[in-house]
Amino acid sequence: MGHDDGQASGHLFHAGPQRPDATVRLYLFPHAGGSAASYARWASLLPHDVEVRTTQLPGRQERRSETAFTRLDPLIEALYDEVEDDWDGRPFAFFGHSMGALLSYRLTLAMEAEGGPSPALLAVSGWAGVAHHSSDVPIADMSDEEFIAKVEQFGGLPPEVLDNPEMRALVLPALRADFQVLNDYRHDAAPVRCPLVAYCGLSDPALAGDAMATWSSLSPAFLGLTRFPGSHFYIYQHASAIAADLGRHLRASAAKS
Question: Has this prediction a pTM greater than 0.85?
Answer without folding.
Answer: yes
